[in-house]
């Protein structure tokens, strides 16, 4: 047997393996500044100084030896020697990114433990130097127990030394059996060991880098990271309630004043009813949520500006890969928290058609800001404002729960879709971590201003129009004088709602909800506007304001009904614009129809389950 020795290039994604492969073999493998460029094995020929050939394979990047995605499995199988029709490599060149040492060393340690002859290419040292990081390669070599060679693949620096070391490894490996070193299986120990080694190999680091590193060691920690993320989200939802109370009060007083002014100037009649019961009650019921929406976006904008959002994306990356989503789906899904429409448009950055389709289909499950008014008014009316733990209020907790429910729902949906209608391989993706920095107040304010304008524009157009139409349908025809029938029951809308009610009664919905469901298709906030208008028209006491609405909700709805209604809003495809943009982005009616179908069924079932569970729990 005279086959050339086989040497594999392995390492984390985006470490520069393909760049090194090209430099060593003269091949033209695709390199790109994002992970997941190489997705299958490629081999090429490296000629050693004495003319002997070596077969070099460039592998897809992987984070560890546990098989995650399909391309990671290729890497694992090759280095373990279990790939069908493939010899086990005689040696490994482990490529690490010098500027990202502790993350990359984790995988390196696992690879060294396999017992194959290893040389570490400490790549991208130019970028590390630029960032003010000086590393001691000899120290690193001593800690790892293998040779370490600093390289700059793109400038061919260190390649001759690397070649000489490959020569030495393949010559030796033919004569010497290798001893398998101790394997470290526990990820936390592995991480700790990697960090220790990285720290001892670091000679100098600029303060910014050190800061970034310290913050990242918490923010990206496999256990502390997710806890921090959940904690931040929780504070955000708590603040949505806690900080908005006063400004909501002011806006409400404004509307009460406005209603009084209109009441005093306009004569009694249908026009006055249109203005007060229709526009002011309906649009006003929505506009009072402006403070809450701004608080939500204040948090999102600040987290984005500080550089934390990308870390959150990184934390989610593994999880997303496990449900078959591309890491690149993170940004579209994140924008869907504002609104699914820009979120679905942002999926254009996902190359793989199946990946993209899956992301589009689950985007409506991310809680868009239009759901916030619906959630908070119901929570405000039905969930007691109680502390469950110091600083942890029940209302904020329920709101966080609803958001999480949407996310979990989306992940479950992705998992199922990926096994059935959008079957296919998925690709991993990791982003470069930006530097942490203080947010610029100006940028944050500009962001808030544009959100406020979008919201008010919706309130002034779509929401106002739907409310007026709804008011008309609710106000006519008028019941005969003295018949004692409620005007809402007698109206066209009331009759339509009675029809819908038949369908939604089994999941605990009443007539008010049935009435709100259809106009809420125009914009979800309209559900609140619709209920506001219904109660304004049916209102005998003329109280007005959110307090009055809350009181009426409490009087007319049971707790199980309210919970079922919340659950419905988590899942239901409640908005026409989302359906329209899905049609445009998927070129046809097939996928939007599928999306609407599966979401409605899920919403109906989940709301039903919630209702009946609540009934049986005796709530
Ligand atoms: N400055 C600098 N850039 C490098 C170096 N090595 C690679 N790059 C760049 O880093 C990026 C990633 O390189 P690739 O070779 O595609 O990385 P890879 O490890 O093959 O990545 P996957 O195939 O995704 O696993 C590319 O933009 C390269 O041009 C280096 O030593 N210095
Ligand atoms: Mg590559």
From TrEMBL:
Pfam families: FeoB_C, FeoB_N, Gate. One of its GO terms (molecular function) is ferrous iron transmembrane transporter activity. It is a multi-pass membrane protein. Its main location: membrane. Keywords: Cell inner membrane, Cell membrane, GTP-binding, Ion transport, Iron, Iron transport, Membrane, Nucleotide-binding, Transmembrane, Transmembrane helix, Transport. One of its GO terms (cellular component) is plasma membrane. PROSITE patterns: G_FEOB. It is found in: Cell inner membrane. The chain crosses the membrane at residues 223-243, 279-303, 323-345, 357-383, 395-417, 455-474, 513-537, 557-581, 593-617. InterPro entries: Fe2_transport_prot_B_C (IPR011640), FeoB_GTPase (IPR050860), G_FEOB_dom (IPR030389), Gate_dom (IPR011642), GTP-bd (IPR006073), P-loop_NTPase (IPR027417). Gene3D superfamilies: P-loop containing nucleotide triphosphate hydrolases. Residues 4-172 form the FeoB-type G domain. PANTHER family: FE(2+) TRANSPORTER FEOB, FERROUS IRON TRANSPORT PROTEIN B. This is Fe(2+) transporter FeoB. It comes from Sphingomonas yabuuchiae.
């Amino acid at each position: 047997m005279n086959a050339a020795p086989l040497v594999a290039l392995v390492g984390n994604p985006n470490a520069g393996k393909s760049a090194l492969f090209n430099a060593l073999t003269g091949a033209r493998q695709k390199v790109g500044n994002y992970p997941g460029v190489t997705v299958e094995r490629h081999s090429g020929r490296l000629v050693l100084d004495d003319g002997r050939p070596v077969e070099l394979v460039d592998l897809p990047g992987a984070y560890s030896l546990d098989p995650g995605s399909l391309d990671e499995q290729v890497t694992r199988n090759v280095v373990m020697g279990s790939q069908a029709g493939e010899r086990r490599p005689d040696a490994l060149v482990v490529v690490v990114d010098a500027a990202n040492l502790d993350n990359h060393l984790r995988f390196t340690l696992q690879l060294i433990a396999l017992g194959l002859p290893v040389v570490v290419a400490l790549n991208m040292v130019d970028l590390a130097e630029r960032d003010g990081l000086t590393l001691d390669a000899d120290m690193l070599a001593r800690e790892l127990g293998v040779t370490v060679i600093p390289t700059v693949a793109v400038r061919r620096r260190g390649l001759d030394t690397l070649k000489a070391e490959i020569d030495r490894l393949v010559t030796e490996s033919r004569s010497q059996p290798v001893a398998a070193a101790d394997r470290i299986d526990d990820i936390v120990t592995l991480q700790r060991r990697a960090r220790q080694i990285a720290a001892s190999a670091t000679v100098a680091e600029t303060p910014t880098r050190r800061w970034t590193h310290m913050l990242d060691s918490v923010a990206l920690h496999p256990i502390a990271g997710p806890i921090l993320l959940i904690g931040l989200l929780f504070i955000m939802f708590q603040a949505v309630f806690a900080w908005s109370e006063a400004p909501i009060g002011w806006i409400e007083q404004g509307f009460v004043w406005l209603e009084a002014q209109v009441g005093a100037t306009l004569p009694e009649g249908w026009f006055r009813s249109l203005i007060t019961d229709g526009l002011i009650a309906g649009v006003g019921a929505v506009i009072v949520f402006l403070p809450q929406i701004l608080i939500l976006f204040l948090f999102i904008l600040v987290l984005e500006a500080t550089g934390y959002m990308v870390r959150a994306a990184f934390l989610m990356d593994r999880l997303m890969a496990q449900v078959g989503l591309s890491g690149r789906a993170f940004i579209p899904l994140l924008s869907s928290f504002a609104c699914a429409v820009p979120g679905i448009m942002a999926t254009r950055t996902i190359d793989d058609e199946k990946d993209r389709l899956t992301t589009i289909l689950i985007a409506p499950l991310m809680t868009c800001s239009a759901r916030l008014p619906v959630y908070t008014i119901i929570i405000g009316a039905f969930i007691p404002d109680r502390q469950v733990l110091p600083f942890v209020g029940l209302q904020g907790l329920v709101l966080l729960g609803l958001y999480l429910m949407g996310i979990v729902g989306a992940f479950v949906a992705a998992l199922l879709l990926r096994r059935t209608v959008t079957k296919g391989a998925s690709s991993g993706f990791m982003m470069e971590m930006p530097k942490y920095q203080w947010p610029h107040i100006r940028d944050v304010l500009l962001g808030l201003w544009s959100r406020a304008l979008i919201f008010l524009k919706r309130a002034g157009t779509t929401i106002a129009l739907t409310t007026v139409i709804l008011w008309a349908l609710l106000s006519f025809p008028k019941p005969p004088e003295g018949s004692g029938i409620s005007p809402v029951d007698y109206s066209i809308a009331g009759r339509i709602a009675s029809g819908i009610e038949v369908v939604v009664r089994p999941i605990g919905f009443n007539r008010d909800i049935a009435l709100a469901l259809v106009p809420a298709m125009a914009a979800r906030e309209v559900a609140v506007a619709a209920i506001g208008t219904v109660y304004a028209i049916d209102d005998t006491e003329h109280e007005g304001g959110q307090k009055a609405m809350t009181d009426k909700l409490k009087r007319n709805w049971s707790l199980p009904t309210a919970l079922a209604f919340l659950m419905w809003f988590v899942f239901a495809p409640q908005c026409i614009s989302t359906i329209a943009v899905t049609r445009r982005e998927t070129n046809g009616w097939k996928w939007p129809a599928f999306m609407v179908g599966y979401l409605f069924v899920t919403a109906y079932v989940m709301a039903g389950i919630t209702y009946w569970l609540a009934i049986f729990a005796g709530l």
